[in-house]
Amino acid sequence: METGESAPMAVSREVREETGLQLDELFSLNETFIFYDEASNSIQLTPVFVALVSTGSLVVIDPEEHSSFDWVGLECAPAKLYWPAQRRALEQLIALLEEGPLPSLMKMKTSFKIDAN
Which of 18, 67, 73, 81 could form an SS bridge with 86, CB 3.0 to 4.6 Å? Predict the structure, then answer.
């Protein structure tokens, strides 16, 4: 995160920088990734967010960050994830989606929109 930036703002900025996508809605799952960062010799706690974008949005990846991308269905997504915590978060999301729209209590109420410039 950059100075003065909230976590939702950082998510929105990173997604835009790396994919060109503008987020329409942002939700927080009840999952946190925990990992050790050797560079800072610290334990990092990272919240898991779910972002919605407009259908038909054009993805333009940053070639210095990524070599490719792929849209996959929920049935194929677990095989694309490396870490068990990522798969648990996806399972939680699938269970929530099976119940209907994502609950409004999970929706980020703080602004995450960034200027398109």
Answer: 81
